Amino acid sequence: MGKVVMYGSVSVDGFIADDSDDPGPLFDWLTSGDVALDDSGVLKVKQASHDYIRPYWDEIGVTIAGRHVFDLTDGWDGTPPSGIDHVVVVSHRPPPEGWNPDLPFQFVERVEAAVARAKELAGDRTVEITAGDVGGQALAGGLVDEVRMDVVPVVFGAGKRFFGTLDAHHLLEDPDLVVQGERVLHLRYPVRRETN
C-alpha cells in the first residue's frame, strides 16, 4: 500500500485561504517560474520546486477532497487535477444533479471510508488528502503518514486553517526534506506514530 499524505500551500500563519475562500498569493509560485510543471503550459515553477513537486505528483494515484473544495472547483470539470487517476469526495450530499457516474469521482460520507476507498483505488501509489477540515480529520484519526506544506511568505491573519479545526495536539517528526524555492518553502514531515 502507498502512503497517505496531507498536502497544500499555506501562509506562514497557517491558512490555506481567507474567510471568503480566496487563496490570495498562495499559488503565485506555481506560475512564476520558467520550468513547466505539467503539459498545460500554465504551471511554470523554478527548477528547485519542479524537482520537488513533479516526482511527488507522479506518485499520486488518488486525491481525497471535501465537498467544499469539489464545489469551489466545479468538480474540476469532471477531470481529476494534475493527471491523478481518481478523486474521492467526502460529502453527506449526493453528487450534483446530472453528474456523470462514469467519471473517476466517488462520493463517500466519512473520512475513514474515503481513506479506505482511496487506498483500494491507489494500490501502491500515494493517496493525497487536501489540507483543511478533511485533512485535519484524517490526521486526527491517525490516517495520515506524512504532511507536506508549500509555505508561502504571506500572513493572512484569519481564514481557513491548514489543519481545519483540530482539537488536540498531534506531533510530527522533524522535517525529513526542506526545499527552498522562489517565494515558497517546501516542507515534508513524517507523522509521529505513538508506540504502546
Automatic annotation (TrEMBL):
InterPro entries: DHFR-like_dom_sf (IPR024072). This is Dihydrofolate reductase. It comes from Pseudoclavibacter terrae.
